[in-house]
Amino acid sequence: MKKQTKAIRIQAERSQNREHSVPLYLTSSFTFESVEQGRAIFAEEEEGNIYSRYMNPNVDEFVDKMCMLENTEDGLAFASGMAANFAAIAALLKSGDHVVASKALFGSAIQILSKITPKWGITCTFVDGHDMDEWEKAIQPNTRFLFCESPSNPGLDLIDLEAIAQLKAKHNLILAVDNCFATPVIQTPADWGADLIIHSATKYIDGQGRVLGGVVCGREDLIKEIRFFARHTGPSMSPFNAWVLSKSLETIHLRMEKHCDNAYKLAQALEGNTALINVKYPFLSSHPQFELAKKQMKMGGAIMTIDVKGGFEAVNELSKHLKIASISPNLGDTRTIITHPASTTHSKLTLEQRAEVGITDGLVRIAVGLEALEDLIEDFEQALEKAAAFINKEEVV
Ligand SMILES: *Cc1c(COP(=O)(O)O)cnc(C)c1O
Hints:
Elements: H1 3-9, H2 35-42, H3 57-70, E1 74-78, H4 81-92, E2 98-102, H5 107-116, E3 123-127, H6 132-138, E4 143-149, H7 161-170, E5 174-178, H8 183-186, E6 196-200, E7 214-218, H9 220-233, H10 239-249, H11 252-270, E8 276-280, H12 290-296, E9 303-308, H13 311-321, E10 326-327, E11 337-339, H14 351-356, E12 363-367, H15 373-396
The chain binds pyridoxal-5'-phosphate.
């Protein structure tokens, strides 16, 4: 069966009610037929549900679909993408271990690796993601973990997944890839050799801006260690969120095709707009890693960035004139969203940290939604015209 079919057809076991859509298992715990059965299930001699911090039919169904989509042996769901991120690091590393990570990471991932895990003696070196020599030079005898995001948020920098997987194999490390922007519809890092694939399910996996969720898929032995950590520290996904997310996976292929088509065409329409310094999108030939994008991504993704002439003031003016696009820190919604990373998601970084990953004051991330393309093009063009007029007037004064 094709993945599209499986994403629709994988289901928790049907109950005696013969329901078509999976019921919502809102229960904190499960019952045993006898104390002996409880003993056997706890001793792992018999399979069965125990408690929803450990497992739940809705959560398990969601994880089964994610592992199928990511081509991995096992997986685990979390309350949010950051809970997934943190659990993978905290479960697998110990004091004295070292991480090499790309600089172009989600803001909170940088905070974890630069401020939180160092408290427990886990250190991190940040490198320029596309420079493989930098990755290799940063590896120390105590390095255990490589962490990257491709395409990165918000800079849309790509990491050569084949090259980095070769590097981790050479040094016998664990490679974790945040696959949030691409989704498994566009790229499956496990096929290149990644050991762990991390997602914020809040984004395209939900796809409709409703619930938080996270997932780690990957090698069975590593997931086993993360599962031990998660079961006892409790960052579990709620059954309700799992039910929503599993339903969403039924349409992820369809949604991503339309998202990517809209994003590609909006990027083409805005490229060359005189109000902009540049437009960045992995499948535009002007993207510095266009060839790599074509190699490892089936489609260009749903995120593009524009760098607006005139910085913060111009972006602010643009935002006031957009009639359709929302202003929000989220992405991966049916609704087109603009985000100004310098003042929001990446505002906690220093100026130098922002400059290193190309987050200028004029940079706007556009998470292109599923509205009619013509409406989106018209909306951005008219708002950019007004932003440019505003800036020109300011300059005259
Ligand atoms: C949003 C996001 C996260 C964090 O996920 P949450 O579900 O908000 O905790 C991590 N990585 C990337 C790339 C993201 O976009």
